Amino acid sequence: MSIRYTERLGESGIQASVGTTGDSYDNAMAESIIGLFKTEVIRRRGPWCNLETVEFATLEWVDWFNNRRLLEPIGDIPPRELEEMYYSNL
Description:
There is one protein chain. By secondary structure, the chain is mostly helical. It has two domains: 1-46, no CATH class; 47-90, no CATH class. It has helices at residues 2-11, 28-45, 51-67, 79-88. It is globular and about 45 Å long. The model has no long low-confidence stretch (mean pLDDT 84).
């Protein structure tokens, strides 16, 4: 997992902040996404009845975050749309 993560960072042109080859790097970005998720879903839509409702809410949020969220820095388009444009131009 760590090696794939390192490769994905390199493909995206992201410079790792710490670590050696094969290490898991600074996870501040992942932690900020988790914090965002907790704020937008867990705290706002709770209290939760059971684990299943949390799992479905998580799937819905991840789908929205990756496929429908409009991201201003990339031209107010969803991240998935930008990724599709990128790979269609290779």
